[in-house]
């Protein structure tokens, strides 16, 4: 049994302006960043993760490569590009023929790259949205995969300050493999809330954002005050790219179960 599994990736670039048509080099820099983050080989690990949390950090044993064969078995770079008349808007069918259809999501990790704008169904602006992903229960559906903004994809090219280390994709792929946000999304603590199903990520009642500028140990949003405080430097929190640098052993249990469960077809 090989411990490390390699996931073939297809990147669908949908651009309205030339600047949104990100380079191959920018896309490949994202793959490099993923291979560091998911293997615990990221250079900033020992400076961003405090010593007290380092024993909780895991090598997720997941690796990524650009697809080398397309769904018809023909050679490919794993990158396809299309000029589109509209930026991404919620409800804009990026995964239909107006954008790019997914490559068989049971065989490939699909990543759509574009620029967000417009408003969603709640009237909230989508400008500045970093990305979103589907959990493993979407496995096989036509939109399964992730959507990422072109200015926070990869580590080279034109990138937003603070979102230039490829961690949006790291975070989104965490969701893709079944991980929840550290705070469990409920915004409350107690037995029914604050939980991401991981005992080794201290429970919090909400996200840490970049502007919170947390410094270890921080108990601002913890459910229980402890010596180590919150694990705000986890990839599944909401801090900026330079402030996050780890997954945990309990998160690895979830991602490994996803790989032998709902996403097992990626291994074939
Ligand atoms: N808001 C997005 C989500 O919940 C992405 C957050 C990514 N954070 C980052 N530092 N790149 O899926
Ligand atoms: Zn998220
Ligand atoms: Ca937890």
Automatic annotation (TrEMBL):
GO molecular function terms attached to this record: metallopeptidase activity
Domain of life: Bacteria
Residue ranges occupied by any Peptidase M43 pregnancy-associated plasma-A domain in the UniProt entry: 102-252
Keyword Nucleotidyltransferase: no
Alphabetical UniProt keywords: Disulfide bond, Hydrolase, Metal-binding, Metalloprotease, Protease, Signal, Zinc
Annotated family: Belongs to the peptidase M43B family.
UniProt protein name: Zinc-dependent metalloprotease
